[in-house]
Amino acid sequence: MGDKFAVLEALNKVSSEQARIEIANSLAKHILEARGFGTKFGEAVGAINLCRKIRNQYAHAQWMRVDGKLSFTRTDNINWRDKDSIRWSTLSLDVLEKQELYFEYTRKCLIWLEFQLGTPKPSVAIPWPKHIHRPPLDAGTATTKQAGTGSGS
User: Are residues 71 and 150 in contact, defined by beta-carbon separation less than 8 angstroms?
Assistant: First the structure.
């Protein structure tokens, strides 16, 4: 796009991750479509949005040990008027590993796009990253517990 540092500086002024993604999408989409990468860019933007959702569910969660297992609840799952029943999700190593692989896949997609844009005629054909299915957003099984139960907070 020319001066990528000016674009990055401008995006840094926006506090919402979703707004940053939408602005970057609006700025770059037409350039990538003109270069024949519109579909790949769309896939990368979709992957970025899922990574944002995964990250936010953990960053904005309440954490607790339930039945000896690390558990969390998203704040949008809490009925603040009826605190007697909260849905706790128990973390699953399998799902966390799938989510981590998806984050890595997303990073590789972005690196591929950046390479294609930064190299007028790449002399080496770098393959698009092998597609990884979207992992579940929720990291495990859910249980409903009374507020204040479990074995620690």
Answer: yes
CA-to-CA dists, residue 108 to 32, 52, 57, 113, angstroms = 17, 16, 23, 9
Secondary structure, 3-state, 61-73:
EEEEEECCEEEEE
- Retrieve residue 138's tokens: 């929720």
Task: Say which residue the tokens 């620690």 belong to.
Answer: 152
What six digits make up the tokens of 25? Answer: 């999408």
Strand partners, 71: 64, 90
Look up the pTM and report it: 0.78
* pLDDT tens digits for range 21-62: 888 888 788 888 888 899 999 999 999 999 999 999 899 898
SS3 28: helix
